[in-house]
Design goal:
single chain, D-Maltodextrin-Binding Protein, domain 2, 2 domains, seven-stranded mixed beta sheet, 477 residues, alpha/beta, globular, 20 helices
Length: 477
């Protein structure tokens, strides 16, 4: 077990031992009595928050209820494949599945998940006195249906933020060299032009000084959905292209010809910007997913980059995994003019608010016991140590916990950014056809990345392909 998880496990155990009331302890033992000996099976991506559930919360739940929980942690693509195949075939292998924010709408459209709100209302004996979905942050809204019923207990939520190396940006020698070369002061970028200039400078600086240092990360894998997601969820919004460039109010138009923006001028400018960054990023970038960009940054190989929040905190604080502890700064991503105003007005967003939840498949053979576990991990009481061990916050009260505040200071305001600026970011658009459109257009996107198709032509083809897929699915009339 990771040392941070060991520490968190001890802190959690001590915390629960000293703060849990007899009534709280009695509920779990009483509620779990009828399911004692049951083994629940869950599948999730191997991420810090998921590993915390597996190593800390599942054993604690078993102690209190007698219900054993086995959590299978695997790669993102295997996790998704296993979960959806199980639910489609109705085999009931899994009692709990990880629901990524961007796939929930597909699951709801196919009636894959148990309605948590309705079930707890219909079976009040299952309702824990320490569980209340009103305790969740607004991120929980992404896991609700049109009636406001919750279908997943949020277990991770984070922003994809702009990370930069404070030690490099504050180095007098580097600052002087940057000023001499550009005529500007070296500081975190607020525009794409600034970001590009900084990236070019550091890549050249690394080469000139014989350093393994480049100017930026790039999540640009040539055959993995991570690159598609980086472009559509993290890059194009900063240019003012929202919801993948698909206009749901305009017959789901994607092409400029029909009123969409997937292949518009802003999207094409965004693609050329990002491809240039990829070309001056470390050589591993063409095979990097969200995991590899994090390890690249942690290894000290880049000066700046867009990094998922689930990795940002350990990069900044975990000396066992990161060479840049104490050297990391956090900022909002660089933006085109007007994008921040759009976000503040609720007309757009500046980046991706990512995360996921645990849901119970309709096909589970142990629904009630599974719901008890989802309630357990959704309590305020278990959140602070979880937030410290894994950089995620799903419950509002967690922000005010003294331990979390202390960690926030250590991380330079990482949690404060999530609390104060989270409203400027957004999850994936509420598209039931999410996976289908991604899978239909991704091969073309990969061809752009490998140079088989020119960027402008490639986006034109992707937009047309998106409309073709939406027509075949019955969304475009």
């Amino acid at each position: 077990m990771h040392y941070a998880l060991k520490a968190s496990a001890l802190a959690l155990t001590l915390g629960l031992a000293t703060t849990a009331s007899p009534a709280w302890a009695d509920f779990w033992s009483d509620a779990g009595a009828k399911y004692k000996g049951v083994t629940l099976h869950g599948v999730t991506e191997s991420t810090p928050p998921s590993n915390y559930i597996k190593n800390v919360l599942a054993p604690e739940f078993e102690k209190k209820t007698g219900i054993k929980v086995e959590i299978e942690t695997t790669s993102w693509d295997q996790m998704y494949d296993k979960a959806i195949k199980d639910m489609e075939a109705k085999t009931g292998i899994y009692d709990m599945v990880y629901i990524e924010q961007d796939i929930i709408y597909s699951y709801l459209a196919r009636n894959f998940l148990v309605d948590i709100t309705k079930t707890l209302k219909d079976q009040p004996d299952l309702k824990a006195p320490t569980y209340d979905d009103a305790n969740f942050t607004s991120f929980a809204d992404y896991f609700k249906d049109a009636n406001g019923d919750l279908f997943g207990t949020p277990m991770e939520a984070f922003l994809k933020t702009y990370l930069y190396r404070k030690d490099l940006f504050d180095d007098p020698k580097i600052k002087e060299a940057f000023k001499k070369e550009t005529g500007k002061d070296l500081k975190p970028a607020t525009t794409h032009e600034e970001y590009t200039q900084i990236a070019e400078f550091f890549t050249k600086y690394g080469k000139d000084n014989g350093m393994e240092l480049w100017g930026t990360t790039a999540q640009a894998h040539t055959g993995h959905p991570a690159s598609w997601y980086e472009f559509f969820e993290s890059i194009v919004p900063t240019f003012g292209v929202y919801n993948w460039g698909i206009d749901a109010k305009n017959n789901y138009a994607a092409t400029v010809e029909h009123g969409g923006t997937m292949n518009g001028d802003k999207a094409k400018a965004a693609l050329k910007y990002w491809l240039h960054l990829r070309d001056i990023a470390p050589p591993e970038s063409t095979q990097s997913t969200w995991t590899e960009t994090a390890t690249t940054f942690a290894a000290g190989r880049v000066a700046q980059g867009l990094i998922y929040g689930e990795n940002a905190a350990w990069i900044a604080s975990d000396e066992a995994q990161s060479k840049v502890v104490g050297k990391v700064g956090f900022a909002l991503p660089p933006l085109e003019p007007g994008v921040l105003d759009d976000a503040k007005a609720g007309k757009g967003y500046i980046g991706y608010y990512d995360g996921g939840a645990f849901g119970v498949p309709i096909t589970s053979k142990n629904k009630e016991a599974s719901l008890l576990f989802l309630e357990f991990i959704g309590q305020n009481e278990v959140q602070p140590d979880w937030a410290i061990a894994a950089p995620r916050i799903t419950n509002k009260a967690t922000f005010d916990d003294p331990k979390v505040k202390e960690m926030d200071t250590k991380l330079g305001g990482f949690y404060t950014m999530l609390k104060d600026e989270g409203k400027l970011f957004a999850g994936a658009p509420p598209y039931p056809f999410h996976a289908q459109v991604r899978e239909a257009t991704a091969p073309i996107f990969y061809d752009i990345l490998t140079g088989k198709i020119a960027p402008d032509e490639g986006l034109d083809q992707m937009a047309a392909k998106a409309e073709e897929e939406l027509t075949s699915l019955g969304y475009r009339k």
